[in-house]
C-alpha cells in the first residue's frame, strides 16, 4: 500500500517530484518510469496505488497510458494526468470522471491538490 508510479519523460521533473514525496510523505514508495512503454508491465501488475502520468510523451502519450491502465483494471480514481498544458485543454481531453484529476505540473497552486492526495494515500498506507 502506498506505491506511486510517475510516468514522465521529463527526468528532472520526475526526480524533483520523487524527492518532494520522499521528504514529506515518507511512508509512500515512489517509482519513476521515463519511458511510457516500460511503465505498462508495472501498471499491469496491479499494485500501483496512484498513477501520475504526463500527457505529452513520445511513443505513447498520457491518454494511451490512462486507457491502458483502465483496461487492465486500474481504478480511474487513482490516476492523475499532469501536463504543461492549461486546465481547459486538459479538461477537454480528460472530461470529469475520466481520472481523479488533471493538473498543470508547473502551476504552484496545483501543489495543494497533490498534497491532499499524497496525504490521504499516506494515511491509508500507514493504516490510519
Automatic annotation (TrEMBL):
Q: Which Pfam families match?
A: Response_reg
Name the InterPro entries on file.
Bact_response_regulator, CheY-like_superfamily, Sig_transdc_resp-reg_receiver
Give the UniProt record's GO annotations in the biological process aspect: phosphorelay signal transduction system
This protein's UniProt keywords: Phosphoprotein
Q: Which domain of life is it from?
A: Bacteria
Instruction: Write down which residues bear the modification named 4-aspartylphosphate.
Output: 54
- Which stretches make up the Response regulatory domain? 3-128
- Name of the molecule in the record: Response receiver-related domain protein
State the organism named in the record: Geobacter metallireducens (strain ATCC 53774 / DSM 7210 / GS-15)
